Inverse folding.
């Protein structure tokens, strides 16, 4: 987890400019929270620079935005100044409750032991407190993994696995939905640079020759109108503490 935090810290300068897919996901999840429900004490984990935080406008109560990457928190304070920002590890939420809402958009897939984390989140929710999350699914960057399978920074879980983890952690799910977004880049090299600018560093280094061959294969295999495509897939869920 430490390496992931460092990657996001280093990527803070270019994160927003390259995160159009993440912004679209944040908007999709935010639409599930009606204006009349935006009240009480909310805790957002993995807030980053505030892509989801900024969607929670006119919040009545305390909105606590947290992230483990210090530079992300500093940028978030500037971009979403109405929230209360704090450097905090999502795996150690003690002291952040009792909460009426927990939000986590595009975070859970990065955590090593999500089952334990979700149980700890459940403990800081008030009885009947609500949770809304979005998590990346297999199929995200499927094109890149086709030509460079060894570079994935994640061990992917499917929607049913996430559902089971949430239910066993003590959440009654009320709404679930799959989400897909296709981003177009001029070429594979531009995509790869954007991936690094988002802090999504590959799991292993790739030799220069193999990398050039993979990028040529990407440009040939996944080209379309306007450039090459990169697919994002996610699962959105909302539920209550039981």
């Amino acid at each position: 987890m430490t390496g992931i935090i460092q990657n996001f810290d280093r990527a803070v300068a270019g994160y927003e400019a390259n995160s159009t897919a993440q912004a679209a996901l944040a908007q999709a999840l935010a639409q599930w929270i009606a204006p009349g429900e935006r009240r009480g004490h909310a805790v957002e984990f993995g807030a980053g620079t505030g892509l989801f935080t900024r969607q929670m406008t006119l919040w009545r109560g305390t909105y606590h935005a947290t992230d483990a990457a210090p530079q992300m928190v500093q940028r978030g304070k500037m971009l979403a100044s109405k929230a209360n920002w704090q450097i905090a590890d999502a795996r150690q939420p003690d002291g952040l409750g009792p909460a009426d809402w927990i939000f986590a958009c595009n975070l859970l897939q990065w955590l090593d032991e999500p089952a334990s984390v979700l149980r700890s989140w459940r403990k800081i929710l008030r009885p009947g407190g609500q949770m809304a999350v979005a998590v990346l699914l297999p199929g995200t960057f499927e094109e890149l993994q086709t030509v460079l399978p060894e570079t994935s920074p994640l061990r992917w879980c499917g929607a049913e696995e996430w559902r089971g983890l949430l239910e066993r952690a003590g959440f009654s799910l009320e709404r679930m939905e799959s989400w897909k977004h296709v981003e177009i880049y001029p070429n594979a090299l531009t995509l790869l640079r954007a991936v690094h600018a988002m802090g999504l560093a590959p799991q292993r280094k790739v030799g220069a020759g193999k990398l050039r061959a993979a990028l040529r294969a990407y440009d040939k295999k996944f080209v379309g109108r306007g450039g090459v495509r990169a697919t994002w897939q996610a699962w959105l869920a909302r539920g209550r503490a039981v």
